Amino acid sequence: MSRFRSSIVSDAAFLLFILAALISIMFTSSNPNLYLANIIFLNIAFLIAVITYFTTMTTGLILNILFIFGYGTYTLYQTVVVGGVIGTQNYFWLIMTPIFTVSTWLLTLGNRQLQAENEQLQKENDSLATVDPKTSLKNTLSFQTDATIFMALSVRYQIPLTLMVISVKYWDEIRRMIGVDQLMEAIHDLSKISQTSIRTNDSLYLLNKDNPMWGMLLFTDRAGASIVIERLRKTVDEWNRGEYAEKYRVGLILKMGAVEYDPEVITNPLEFIVQAKKQLEYDV
């Protein structure tokens, strides 16, 4: 409902601004004798509106007060000293200039509310998303859900469960050598290689995208995970010697570690990740 109101405010303010501009243009062109003066006042009204758009309503109100005071003083001078007559010209810009300011402020207010709501929705979407949009891999949120189920199955049916984690050696140095687009391609390519190294009933997760770390939940013991590690290491070595060596101009070396699930030590999925990450320190 709030998003609907913000949209209504923004649309109404835009229509009010367009209507005020149309009326001002028609009024300016209606009297050739005052054409120059009206053009000047129209530009002042637009200038105050633009300043209000990029600042605050308070700034716009202050500028309008200064304009009304200055224009009122000018009108008083023309009436008392010069002997002029107060006409429609004198009242029109005193009314239209604040209308421009108010419509601009309402337009800004509606747009900012829509932007804030859009950012909030984006954050909520990111927090609820279980799949990384770039690699189509499950993320940490999905890992926590799946790992909780797999850990319970492991205990209930006495099935060995191992978490294998993979990271890239010297990632900070590599990041400075190749561009952002190539970094994302490298993450995507490594994800595909990792997927080909596991069975269909095993699961691959992208646990960290900024400093890439993948996690594999394997229905096997620690010895079985070692076989997967060696197979993946061999695949990456072949990958570095092949077409990808020219593609990235640098070899990508993986660090891998694995830990078998022990309900006495590992009480939750995050602890599972922590224990597996510790094993990376031994892969030098």
From TrEMBL:
Keywords on record: Membrane, Transmembrane, Transmembrane helix
Keyword Ribosomal protein recorded: no
UniProt superkingdom: Bacteria
GGDEF domain residues: 129-280
A Pfam family assignment: GGDEF
Transmembrane segment boundaries: 12-29, 35-54, 61-85, 91-110
Name used for this protein in its record: GGDEF domain-containing protein
Organism: Paenibacillus whitsoniae
Lineage: Bacteria, Bacillati, Bacillota, Bacilli, Bacillales
